Every structure is written in structure tokens, then in C-alpha cells.
Amino acid sequence: MLQCLSDALTQRGYDSLTAVQEAVTRADLQDADLLVSAQTGSGKTVGFGLAIAPTLFDADGTLGVAQAPLALVVAPTRELALQVKRELGWLYAKADARVTTCIGGMDMRDERRALERGAHIVVGTPGRLRDHIQRGSLDMGSLRAIVLDEADEMLDLGFREDLEFMLAEAPQERRTLMFSATVPTAIARLAEKYQRDAVRVTTLGSESQHSDIAYQVLRVAEQDSENAIINLLRYHDAENAIVFANTRAMVNRLTARLTNRGFSVVALSGELSQNERTHALQAMRDGRARVCVATDVAARGIDLPGLELVIHAELPSSAEGLLHRSGRTGRAGRKGISAVIVTPKTARKAERLLSFAKIDADWIAAPSADEILRMDEERLLADPVWSTEPEPEQQDFAARLLALHGPEKIAVAYLALHRAQLCAPEDLADPDTRPERRERKPFGPSRWFALSVGRDDRAEPRWLLPLLCRAGNLDKDAIGAIRVQQSESVVEIAEAAVPGFLAAIGDAGQLEEGVTVRPMEGAPAPAAAPRKAGPRPDRPERAPRPKKDSRTDERPDAAPHPARTVEPKPAAIPEAAAAPETRATPKSDAPRAPVSAAAPASDRPKAPAKKAAPKSDRAKPYSSKPAPASERPRSFAKKVASSDAPKPRQRPRTEDGAPRSAAPGRPSEPRRPESKPRSGAPDKPRNKPFGKPQGNPAEKDRRGGPAGAATRKPDAKPKPPRANAADTSKRFTPPKAAGKQGTPGKPKPQGARPGASPRRKGPGGNEPPRRG
């Protein structure tokens, strides 16, 4: 071990190393990757600080100038990261090491400036470290060692991707040390992927967990769980104590309750900011607070000096959580107590947790008020103040007291003053006693009223009760039973409160919009009561069922099925006969008989039965087949000329491609072509408007425009309105006078640009010379 580290341990008060510290500082493991599993509170932080020292120090025993970080320590929580920084700070203080942190919730700009100034060791949480790596403010090129503290907890919190990202960005020749209380399968896979021939180091023996911690299980009644916490704190009077709860709401509730009882309490939960959490832990270290109420955010890595008592106000969700919570006490060889509050409902769960954690706990009763008072007296007699020599001023005052009062009276007064500074203990009920049910007093004479809302309107007593109290000017005690029925609800109101209720609702009898009240004559009919528990009445015995064989014997024989006949396959139709005619024979022109004169159904001749169409012969795939219905020629009937004849039910359809016949009584006109014949001229340009510009003066445009206006494309952008000289809201530029440029009154030559001088004829002008 380096001399600077040995001097730091001696100055800190270390006489010897713990088992895990000795295991990781062996000479043969100085360059190896380590996978260490040790119980909570065994000194893992100082252990990996000593383990990475040979890798960080140069040959001359120094760390060199602080530039890019040499070691990276990753912790799951902010509190644990700050604690690791403090531990490494005093351990490497004599080596002039610079240790900095990158923690979520802190100012990222300050961390970036600290990294730019240089650091030997960087401690942080996974998310913030990844941010610095991606932004380029954390240089991983000179890294020699990476330490993952509480690796199993980081995987449980969902930091797998962040850890894999950092391990992939680090150099390949670095050392990787993983420290964890347990080594599950996920940790083993991570070590196999990112470590090189890792050496497994474990200090967990076969004996029970946390031999320096005394586990106690206190059975209390359901309503005395918080009172038992107060009695425990009063009975042990620990220098520092921590109370664990499962939710933030429970933390706030216990904090308020203990503060009202006179305890100096701080809260620690995830809803607090990082500064608030840091101040809370510092208050515990400074002695300004003696009780910390926290969630599982303080279950790992938190090391509070003099923490003697851990109380589990609520059971943790797993055995590992129970071990990590209890590990806040009994650290570094000190003794501690872990007390679990158990009610009759949670007793079985507590037994399972203790069994899974392999913990032998003592099931005891919670301290009573008499036991707490006796413990106060014992502590008072053992107080070191009795062995100190009194000052002269104190002796003079003691003589005056003895002269005025006797010794016994002075002792009783002193004991009363001592107890007045402490909160009074709570009286606890027997754990097996159940809370007594409150007997409701008789309601007395009452009247019933019906409300116009029921189950169809989603009426519930929880909102009908405050509505009656608010709108009906009633007290809660004046309202009796509330029965919600299908279409209405009935309410019982005390007879003494009925006049005030009727005056409040008025003649309209309206509580609020949509809810009216009407008085009832007498009490409503009681609802159908549920069936009483007990055996059902005996049913009459049923007649014995006939046997299966007898039923089959009595069943008549079924008639045999008729024989199945197969009709012979019809002969193939010759092609000449199968070919359809080119045109069907038209129907007769004789008028049809009226529908009313139809013969009865019994006198109608029956049509001959249709024969099934012949199936296609699979053996002759190319044989002739009947044409499909869509290709068969249609039959057309001549139109009846007589107007007296009945109209046909369906209009005859013309054959495709045949010329249309002229309508009767109208001269035939030549058929208009379907489309305009296409000429050889090119298409219109795209920017040319639709329609002819001249148009028809006699007609107007279909869109309401003037005749001759070009038809614009639909959805086209409208033209801007023509400028109006009378409109003074817009600037108007008058047109220039004709002939202003050049000779007045003379028209401008064709083709000349605006402002150009006219061409001169003759030689020397702008015209080209003529030939010939």
C-alpha cells in the first residue's frame, strides 16, 4: 500500500482493514478486473479506492498534473455519489488528487468548467456522465479504471444502456471493477461482456446477514403503527435514527407527526431538489436533526455517523430492499438495531421477507409507556453529569436549594423538569384487538323526501349528501338514510330540520338545476333483502330417469333412405345447333292482356322443367362451349305505335353500335358527333384562357361575367381590381401623356422602347444600309 494512503487511513482512525478491503488489495489482483460482492456496510467505497490506486499512480508515486480524468466512478444515486466523493477526498488528500462530481440535478456549467480545469477522479450518476461524454466535455481517452458501485441497483433503475455506452467509449486497456451487494444474472452477463478475465471476489459467508445488526419485529394493532414509531424513538433515544416509508405521502405524514411531537426531523425523498436533500443529510451529520424520514432513495450507500436505529414503518417490496435499508446501521463494526413494524395484516409478508433474506429476527412487543419512563430514569442515573465536579457558583445555588427545599423534593422536581423536555409516550393497545365498531344512535322521528335523480342519472350518496347540506341548509347529523333507486333517490331527514329544509328549497322544491325534491307520504318500501346465509331448502326428489338401453328400445325404427339415382349425362350438342342465331325473332305486336285479367294460379299452364346445363367435359378442354350470357345476341321488340296499348315494363335497349331511332312525331336530325374532330393544329398554350375572347354579345358568361370576357380556369387567382383615382386610400400614379417623350402630338414609332430616341432615316442612322 502506498504511504500516502496508509497515512490517511491512520489519521482517519482505521486500525485494520475489513475483509473486502483486504481481498481487493492483494498483490496478485493489482492489474486484474474484479467482480466483488459484499454485504452493505462492509467498507466497499474505501476498498475500491485502495484497489485502483496502483493503476492511477505513476512510477514515482504521484498522480501528475490534473488533466483528463484517470478514473471514473459511477453510482446509482446522487447521495451515494456525493458520499463516494467525500470518502475518496480524504483518502487521496495527501496525494493532492482532484476529485470532481457530475451529478444530475446540479449545474452542468459548473461541472463543465471543473472538467476543463482538470481532474484525476470523476464521480457521477449514469445519466449526467453520458451527457458530458456526448457533449465532449468529458474526455475518456486517458481513462485507466472504471468502477461501478452498486451495479445491481443501477440495472434495476434502468441504467443498462447508459452503462454499456460508457463502457464502450472507454479505452480497451482500462480496468473495470464492479462492486455490488448481490451478483444476479444480469450483472454476470455485463461482466462477461465488458471485463477481461474478471476475478470473482466474495466475502459473503454462510452465516446470517448483518451479524452486527439486531433485527426486531414488533407486532402492533392496525391503529397503533405510528404510535409504535414514537415509542421506539423514545425508548432507544438513539443519536441518529432513520425511518423508512414506501411513498412520499407517507414520508410527509410521518414528518409532520414527529415534528408535532417534538422530534428534530428532516425528510428525504425523490420530490426534493438536490440542494434540499444535501442540506437534510448535512443536518443529520451536524447533529441539528436526529431523525430522518426517507423513502428507498436513502436505502443505498448513505453513511450517517452514529446511526443506531433503523425503523421500517412499512415493509419493503423485496428481501434485498430489507437488507439495504437495514445496512444503514451496523457499519464498520458498529452495532445497530433494525426494527420492523408489523400489523396483523402484514405479518405473513414479514415472515416471507425474513425467510428470503435469511434473517433470524426476534418477535417482541412494542415498548409500552411504563417501560419508556423506566428507561428515562435509567439514562438519567447513568448520565455523566453526576461524575463532574460542580463549579463554585453551582455549589452556592445548590446550598440555597437545600435550604429552601428538602433533597427529595428537589429530586422530584428535577425529574419532572427532565420529562417535560421529552414527548410523552403513547399507550398501545393489544396487537390482536380489533377496533370497536361505533354504535349509531337512533335517528328519531323523520320524514322522507324523493329526489328526481337516480341510478340512471349516476346519482351517488357521496355527492347527494353535500348537495343536501349546501342547498337545503342541513347539518350532516340531520340526514339519515340515502337510498338511490333506478329513477329517483329517497332521503330521510330529521323531523326537527324539515321546516328549515322546506324554506331553503322554496316552493319550486329545487336543490339545483335538474334536481327537484318532493315530500313522500310515509316511508318508502324496503328494498329486497339479500338471501340469508344457510342451507338451501330441500328440493323435491325427481323421478328416476330411464336407462339409456330402454330409451333406445322404445324408439321406432327409422325409415330407410331412398335409393340415390344418377341421371345419365346428356349427349354433347353439335356445334351447328349450339351456335346462336344472329338476331332473335321479335315478339308479337298484339297488345298484352291486362294484369287484372290474369288467370288464377291453378289454371295457369305449368312451364316445363328446365334441365341442368351440361357440365364441361374435362377430357376435352377445347370442345365447344355455350357462349356466356354477356356475349349472346339480345332480342329487340318493335315499339307499339298505338297509344292505347299498355306500356312495356322495361324500356327496350338498343344494340351496341346501332344508330338511334328517331322519336315519333319529330323529324330526324343528324347525329351530333361525340367529340370535336381533332385537327392537325398544335394544342393551345397553357397560359391561354379558356373560351373565345370575343364571345357572343347576346349572351353573358355562365359565371355572370360580361359577354366576350375570357373564361378563367376554375380556382384561378382573381385579377387585382383596376386602380380608381377617386380612392384616396391608395396611391394612384396617373398615366403619362402621349407624346411626352419626343415631339408633342406625334405618335411613338412602333418597336421603340420607352424613352428611346426615334430612328433616323438615311445614312448614319440606325437602319441597315440598303443594297442595290
UniProtKB/TrEMBL annotation:
Helicase C-terminal domain location: 228-381
CDD domains, A to Z: DEADc, RRM_DbpA, SF2_C_DEAD
Pfam family, one: DEAD
InterPro entries listed in its UniProt record: DbpA/CsdA_RNA-bd_dom, DEAD/DEAH_box_helicase_dom, DEAD/DEAH_RhlB, DEAD_box_RNA_helicase, Helicase_ATP-bd, Helicase_C-like, Nucleotide-bd_a/b_plait_sf, P-loop_NTPase
Region (Disordered): 521-772
Compositionally biased tracts (Basic and acidic residues): 535-558, 668-686
PROSITE patterns (UniProt xref): DEAD_ATP_HELICASE, HELICASE_ATP_BIND_1, HELICASE_CTER
One GO CC term, this protein: cytosol
Keyword Phosphoprotein carried by entry: no
GO molecular function ontology, one term from the record: hydrolase activity
Bias (Low complexity): 523-532, 568-583, 591-602
Keywords assigned by UniProt, alphabetized: ATP-binding, Helicase, Hydrolase, Nucleotide-binding
Helicase ATP-binding domain: residues covered: 25-201
Family in the record: Belongs to the DEAD box helicase family.
PANTHER family: ATP-DEPENDENT RNA HELICASE DBPA, ATP-DEPENDENT RNA HELICASE RHLE-RELATED
Protein name: DEAD/DEAH box helicase
Organism for this UniProt entry: Thetidibacter halocola
